[in-house]
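Reviewer 2 asked us to include a model.

Predict the structure of this chain.
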Amino acid sequence: MQIKKNIYLELSNIRDKLNMGTGTDFKIRAYEGFEASDYQIGYKQNAQIDSATITSKKVEPREITIEAECTDTSKDKVLRFFNPKMTGKLIVELNNNKRWINYEVKSLKIKQESLYEPIHFIVTLFCAQPFFMDMSDFGKDIAASVPLFAFPFVWKVKRDYVISYRQFSTNFMIVNGGDVFTGMKVDFIARDVVRNPKLFLQDGSFIRVLVEMREGDKLTINTNPGSKSIYFNGQNITNKMDRMSNFIGLKVGENVLTYTADQGYLHLIVRLFYTPMYLGV
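Predicted model (structure tokens):
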């Protein structure tokens, strides 16, 4: 695909960074793979009628190909940077969007059509997880403290004052503005004794952890694909998940979640974090 618009790429690995596109030393000549990835539909043929039954839907791993110009002096930097042994992160600014994705280097070819033509290279990146991620991790503090006074503050003698109140509701709405279902990370922090905290969605699906928490204890549940885990004060206790529950996540659009516990749910501070995922840029 020939370049018809401004595009800016920021690539990084554990050793270095490389910027390409508008305003950089590496002019992008062509690119492919920032749009939607390939899809796969699984189905089973029906024996008696002219139709099939859909059994699965998948988004295939993504390949991104970038062709860009470089100079003789920058050629060595390109060779060192696109090291197939290093996992990288790609940030794309295109179509007024800015999103990122992790990648592996699949191939790199450096070409020069003649001694009088600029050197250019073609790099292909393989993205096992095909979705582009939002640049922000969205968070929601479900039970925050709201201050009720400001300076200057006048205190009448022998009068009691409420300086803050706890904004409390066990029900809360999260809007997933991405293109696909996404996981989340939830922190439960105990202010007193809490037994077996539970988080469930409006459709009845839930995750429940069989653990007793005391003041200051922190329970972290991660339901993101590839990172599913449950940690209690830094120790992995995924085996303590209720066998009837699942690692629930957020569908596209509105999600109403409710938290509770067998005992002491009023003593919970609950914080939720999630990152919308997109089919392309």
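The longest helix spans residues 72-81. The chain is about 5% helix and 50% strand. We have added this to the supplementary material.
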